[in-house]
Each structure stands twice: as structure tokens, then as C-alpha cells.
């Protein structure tokens, strides 16, 4: 009888702990733009992805990676390659609203001199990986998304997502505008 009572208490405590751990675990809740864009940037162009923090709490020490994946023919076999793209800013300390992640397409970029036809032929895909610390739980959270070659819009830039007040100053972000872009000429 003592063993049964002890086993019952331990079982109830473990079940409660497992349920709490399952449902109390923080998640990133990051909203990604539907499309990545190839937009004008500095004197050239860049691959851009826009993300928004959907949480009421902030994320801190957020770090982003974009991994470029493509198929390449070698000795009659198609092999998938991966390359981590250098970012204009890979890490931000504080993420209360939104962030446009930028990879400049210059001479060192694996996307240099590539066009959308090349990305289609090589079945290219961009993987976006986010790691951050949730300030409420002080735990690291992760999020990921990807953009296939047909989800990358060439010659476009993201539209402004800020809500402006009477004096023209930004007073907030309209999360519904995260996916909005406009076509532009690439230099």
C-alpha cells in the first residue's frame, strides 16, 4: 500500500510536470513575408526577407541565417549544395517590431550573375533560420521558413509598413502589410 501511494504521487507529479513543460514552452511566433525579393540595395541589389515579431513580449539577441540551396549536375548525378549567405546585419540585440534581413548580391555572393531562370533550373531554395532569446522565459527560441525559386520576386522592394501619425511620424507597424511589395527597376 505504501508503494502504491508513493508511485501514485510520483506519477501525478511527473504527468503534471510533463504537461506544464509541453504547454509552457515558449515559441518564437515570427511572421515571415510570403515572398523574398531581389531589390535595389546600395549600388547594386540584394536578396531581402521581412519578418515581424507577433508576440506581445520582445525577443532579444536575435540572430538570422539564410542558407542558399541549389542542385548541381556532377558526373551525371544531381547533387544538392548548401551555402550560408553573408548578411548585411546578422544579429540585432532587440526585436520589438520588424526586421528586413538583407543579403547583398556582390561579386562574392553565390547569387552574383545569377537570374531567376538559373534558380529555376537549379531548383534553388533559401532557408531562413532565426534564433533568439525570449525575454519572458529567458529561453532560446527558434523559427524557420524557406523560399523556393518561384517565391522570390525579382525587381521588387517591400512597401512601407509603418503607420504614420498626424505629423508624419511612425507610430506603429501594420502587420497586414508585411507581404506587400512593389515592382522596381534593378540597376
Explained architecture:
- This protein is of the alpha+beta class.
- 16% of the residues lie in helices and 50% in strands.
- The chain has 2 helices and 14 strands; from the N terminus they run αβββββββαβββββββ.
- The protein has helices spanning 2-24, 116-121; strands at residues 30-32, 36-41, 44-53, 59-74, 77-85, 91-95, 98-105, 125-134, 139-148, 152-154, 156-158, 162-164, 170-173, 181-183.
- Strands 1, 2, 3, 7 and 10 form a 5-stranded mixed β-sheet that branches.
- Strand 12 (162-164) and strand 13 (170-173) form a beta hairpin.
- The longest helix is centred in the N-terminal third of the chain and has 23 residues, at 2-24.
- The chain is flat and about 80 Å long.
- The mean pLDDT is 88.
Quick rundown:
With 187 residues, this protein is α+β, with helices and mostly antiparallel strands. The chain is built from two helices and 14 strands.
Keywords summarizing the entry:
single chain, 187 residues, alpha+beta, 5-stranded mixed sheet, 16% helix, flat
Poorly predicted regions: none
Radius of gyration based on Cα positions: 22 Å
Largest sheet: 5 strands, mixed
Q: What percent strand?
A: over 45%
Give the termini separation.
81 Å
- How many beta-strand segments? 14
Structural class by SSE content: alpha+beta
Order of helices and strands: HEEEEEEEHEEEEEEE
What is the averaged pLDDT score? Answer: 88
Basic shape = flat
Number of helices: 2
Helicity, as a percent range? 10-25%
